[in-house]
Amino acid sequence: MENVAHDVDLDVGLAAICFTMNREGTKGLSAGAANCLCSWTFDRTTGALAIDKSLPLKKAGVAAVALREDERIALTAGWDSTYAGAHVPPRSPTACDRLADSHFVAR
């Protein structure tokens, strides 16, 4: 796995407890016990998985991550019953692509 760009220390371990993929199976989001949410790409021809971006989270421990079918809304649910979400306007890059653009807001 190649680390392309990141804002958190990826050496602490990125065991993905939850992940979601787009319908083509080429992009996705994952999270877990570490305090980051990662977007990644998957090359189906070679089987290569690469982290594109990572977003540091205020609290560690993500239990679930979901991506709406049109890739405009992404949500996470934390171990402490909190949630965060990102909405991407139409005609903009998808939520996976806009991960590090500060569109992810905690509620």
Concise summary:
This protein has no helices and nine strands. It has strands spanning 2-3, 16-21, 27-32, 36-43, 48-56, 62-67, 73-78, 83-87, 104-106.
| N-to-C series of helices and strands | EEEEEEEEE
- Determine the number of helices (DSSP H or I, runs of at least 4 residues): 0
Average pLDDT across residues? Answer: 75
**Total strand segments:** 9
What's the alpha carbon Rg, rounded to whole Å? 13 Å
Helical content (DSSP H or I, runs of 4+) = under 10%
Low-pLDDT stretches are: 1-12
Span between N and C termini? 32 Å
User: What order do the strands of the largest sheet run in, or round the barrel if closed?
Assistant: 1-5-4-3-2
Alpha-beta classification: mainly beta
What is the global morphology? Answer: globular
Main β-sheet, in a few words?
Answer: 5 strands, mixed
Strand content: over 45%
Count up the domains.
Answer: 1
